[in-house]
Amino acid sequence: MPEADFQRIQREFAAHIRDPARQPAPADVAPRRMATYRELFFNNIENFIATGFPVLQSILAGERWTALVEDFYARHRCQTPLFVEIAQEFLAYLGAERGPRPDDPPFMPELAHYEWVELALAVAEAEVPPLAPEFETNPLAHTLRLSELAWPLAYGYPVHLIGPDHQPTEPPARPTCLVVYRDAEDAVRFTEVNPATYRLLTLLEENGPTPAVDCLTRLAEELRHPDPAAVLAFGAEILRDLGRRGVVGTVDA
Question: Which InterPro entries does this one have (predicted)?
């Protein structure tokens, strides 16, 4: 079926809005009006992305930031009509479409992921899991589950420390292990954890609800710790702290 005039105008209009440097404007739309549309559409998208990635924006402030958003706007085809998911679309663009560029900070993909996690947890439809009343007294007597609002994460760069005044050019020798979570007051927080605690949380993430003793025993085996009882004792203190934060809950609450 031949393309109708209004369809051609819509296609040309959208193409120019997305990529004005490469796509000509429709011939029958006034240039001043076209410029107004272009500015309004772009500013809307830029505002959503800046809100989701404020640290990255502060680092790339100015022409570098504008060029990054313009490239996303021109190249990426969003798979969702929801404004709240534009940040996830931007993350997909960084990971699968943009590719490394000489002027990009080496930590940019990880920093963007970390900032997206904070936004994703802020809008997630889930609740902090409850704790059994006796949990504080004896954490090892319970079956644990990881909160749906707690994500254990490992990064090459210390993403939680990066900002305009701290931009590492090389990752440190050891990865940065974090748990980012939403607490009972609906505040998104993070805490840096050691590799053993990170592994404890990923065991719960991988296996689902698990008796605390079984989880810590598995951890001691993986660490080849000479004193498994010490791992249980130390693990009990770690679990108390994670329970207070809302990172873990119990299935018998």
Answer: DUF2063 (IPR018640), DUF2063_N_sf (IPR044922), NGO1945-like_C (IPR054098)
Q: Which domain holds residue 16?
A: 5-104
pTM of the full predicted structure?
A: 0.89
Which contiguous run of DSSP H or E holds residue 180? strand 176-182
d(CA 107, CA 171): 8
**Are residues 143 and 210 in contact, defined by beta-carbon separation less than 8 angstroms?**
yes
In the chain, the number of structural domains is 2
Binned at pLDDT 50, 70 and 90, residue 1 comes out as very low
Structural domain ending residue among the three candidates 104, 128, 152: 104
Assigned domain for 129 exists: no
- Which of 84, 104, 124 is the last residue in one of the domains? 104
Tokens, residue 132: 């059994």
Which residues are bridge partners to 179 per DSSP? 152, 191
- DSSP, residue by residue, 105-159: -TTHHHHHHHHHHHHHHHH----PPP--TTTTT-GGGSEEEE-TTEEEEEESS-G
Q: How far apart are CA 212 and CA 42, in angstroms?
A: 51
- Spatial CA neighbour of 151 closest among 119, 117, 183: 117
Q: How far apart are CA 42 and CA 207, in angstroms?
A: 44
Q: What is the mean pLDDT of residues 160-174?
A: 96
